[in-house]
Write a structure and sequence with these properties.
single chain, mainly beta, Metal Binding Protein, Guanine Nucleotide Exchange Factor, Chain A, seven-stranded antiparallel beta sheet, three-stranded antiparallel beta sheet, DUF427, DUF427 domain-containing protein, DUF427_sf
């Protein structure tokens, strides 16, 4: 089933992810996913993320629109941000563009244009 209420476009500007004084990601190739009336979510290509900062989590969830999500935690000097990032390694039909990308909870890390 092709999902109609999800729109994925290339982000118009470069984006960055920061936490605890460290830059976790910088990308001029990020994707912007808009689902229904929800705020846009920025998905970063794995190649543009400092993956050494991300530890795979045991958590998984299912989204009927995007598929099975896997989660990542970030360990910082001040503590661990548990399940702060997620990815859809094999997304559903219609949202395949987000394969190989990771999104971050914006209430727990800084995601902004740079």
């Amino acid at each position: 089933m092709v999902e109609k209420h999800i729109t994925i476009v290339e982000a118009s500007e470069p984006w960055t992810v920061r936490t605890a004084g460290a830059i976790i990601a910088e990308s001029a190739n990020a994707l912007q996913l808009i689902e229904g009336d929800n705020p846009a979510v920025i998905y970063f290509p794995r190649a543009d993320i400092a993956m050494a900062f991300l530890d795979p989590s045991d958590k998984t969830t299912h989204c009927p629109h995007k598929g099975e999500a896997e989660y990542f935690s970030i360990v910082t000097k001040s503590g661990t941000l548990v399940d702060v990032a997620w990815s859809y390694p094999q997304p559903n039909e219609g949202v395949e563009q987000i394969a190989g990308h990771i999104a971050f909870h914006t209430d727990r890390v800084t995601v902004e244009r740079f």
